Amino acid sequence: MVVQINANYLKLKAGYLFPEIARRVKDFSSKHPDADLIRLGIGDVTEPLPEACRNAMKVAIDEMGTLEGFHGYGPEQGYLWLREAIAKNDFQDRGCDIDPDEIFVSDGSKCDSSNILDILGDSNRVAVTDPVYPVYVDSNVMAGRTGISKDFGRYEQLLYIPITAENGFQAEIPENHVDLIYLCFPNNPTGAVASKEQLANWVQYAIDHGSLILFDAAYEAFIQDESIPHSIYEIPGAKECAIEFRSFSKNAGFTGTRCAFTVIPKGLKGVANNGEKVDLWSLWNRRQSTKFNGVSYIVQRGAHAAYSIEGRNQINSLVSFYMENATIIRNQLSEAGLKVFGGENAPYVWLNVPKGMDSWQFFDFLLLKANVVGTPGSGFGSSGEGYFRLSAFNSRDNVNIAMERIKKL
Ligand code: MLT
C-alpha cells in the first residue's frame, strides 16, 4: 500500500478527549467490575426525549408509510417549516433579523463547527480560547492550519486566549490581528457567559479587523440571567461578522437523535485570492448541497415540535431539571470546600482541583475513591490545568449520590 495519509492527523494529540476518558473508564471497570460508576463526564443528556417531539416523530413515521406522506431526499438546507420555526422563535422573537433562508439544518454543531473550515482559506490566523471545546482545535489540526504542538501542547500557529479565574473567565480581545475567532457562550467547559457588552467588543473587533466570529451557542437554553444574550445576532453588527451554531442536543435531548442548525447571514463576505468579495452563504450552500443530504424528515418533525406550546414547556422543564442538578453540584462542592465556577447559566460546573493534584490525578482519584467520572480541565487546553469539569446531565439520584461520595473524601 502506497496510499498517502493526511499527515496532519499525526499532529493530533493521542486521542479525542472523550474517547480517551471512555478508554480509562473501561480499563477501570474491567479491574473493578462491581464499581457503581456515576458519569458526570461527557455532556450527554440522560432524561427521555420530550413527549411532543416523540409524538411528532411517531406521526412522521406513519406518514412515511403512506404513498402520499412518503418523503425521499429532503432539501439539503432543511425543510422550510423547520427553518421558519427556528427563525421566528430563536431569533425574530428576540429582535434578531434572521431569515429562514439564512438557516441550515444539520445533524450536529460538532460537525458544522468542523466542516465550516471547508469554505475558509488555509492562511487564516485562528484564535481559540484556552480552555476550549477540543473540536475547534482538532478540526484545524486535521485541516493543516495549526503547525505542530509545542510548549504545553499548544499548536504553534493558533492564538490561545486564556479564560481562567484570574480574568473572570472572560475572553480578552487580542491586540494582534486574527481572522477567525471561535467563541462558545455559555462556555463549554467553564460554564461562563458573555455579557452584551463583552460580545459587542468582539463584534467591534471583528468588524474593525475584517474577521469572522464562529459563535457556538449550543448551550443558550441554559441561560437564566435575562441580561445575557442568547445569540450573537442580538449584538448590532454581528450579521456582518458572525456565523452561529445551535443545537437541539442539550435542550431537547437530541444527542442521540441528531438535529442542529447553523446560521449564515446573507451578505456575510469573505475574500478570494484575487481580492474579490465572496458570499459565505453561497459557499456553504454549495458545500452542503454537495456533501450533505439533510437530516431525516422524521427527526426534523421532532425538532419542529420543540417549538410547539407543549414542546416548549417540556423543554423548559428539562432545562430546569438539569439546572437544579447544577445548583446541587455547585452547593455541595462548595460545602466540601472546593472552589466552583459556572453552573449558573450553563449545565457545566468548573472547579479547582484540590491542592497537590493536577487535573488527571484528580480524575483518577475521583474515579477510584468515589467511582465518579468527570472531565479533567487540562483536556480542554493547558490553561485548564488545575481545573475539573462536572456535567449536570444525569438523574437527580445519581447527582445526589455522587455529591455525597465526593463530600466523604
Ligand atoms: C462535552 O462533553 O463537552 C460535550 O459532549 C461536547 C459535545 O457536545 O460534543
What features would you describe in this structure?
- The mean pLDDT is 96.
- This protein has helices spanning 17-31, 51-64, 80-91, 109-115, 134-142, 196-209, 280-291, 297-305, 309-335, 359-370, 396-408; strands at residues 38-39, 103-106, 126-130, 158-162, 180-184, 212-216, 242-247, 260-263, 269-271, 277-279, 340-342, 348-352, 372-373, 375-376, 387-391.
- The chain is of the alpha/beta class.
- The chain has two domains: 7-48 and 310-408, Aspartate Aminotransferase, domain 1 (Alpha-Beta Complex), CATH 3.90.1150; 54-307, Aspartate Aminotransferase, domain 2, CATH 3.40.640.
- Helix 6 links the parallel strand 5 (180-184) and strand 6.
- The strands form four sheets. Strands 2-8-7-6-5-3-4 form a seven-stranded mixed sheet, sandwiched between helices. Strands 11-12-15-14 form a four-stranded antiparallel sheet.
- D-malate binds at residues 42-44, 110, 188.
- The site of D-malate has 5 residues, from loops.
Tell me the β content.
Answer: 5-15%
Strand order in the largest sheet = 2-8-7-6-5-3-4
> What is the CATH C level class of the largest domain, in words?
Alpha Beta
Our Rg estimate from Cα atoms comes to 21 Å
User: Multimeric state of these chains?
Assistant: single chain
Per CATH, the superfamily of the largest domain is Type I PLP-dependent aspartate aminotransferase-like (Major domain)
**Strand count:** 15
Helical run tally: 11
- Secondary-structure element pattern, one letter each: HEHHEHEHEEHEEEEEHHHEEHEEEH
What fold name stands as the CATH topology of the largest domain? Answer: Aspartate Aminotransferase, domain 2
Examine the secondary-structure arrangement and name the CATH architecture of the largest domain.
3-Layer(aba) Sandwich
Give the class from helix and strand content and strand pairing: alpha/beta
Number of domains: 2
Mean of residue pLDDT?
Answer: 96
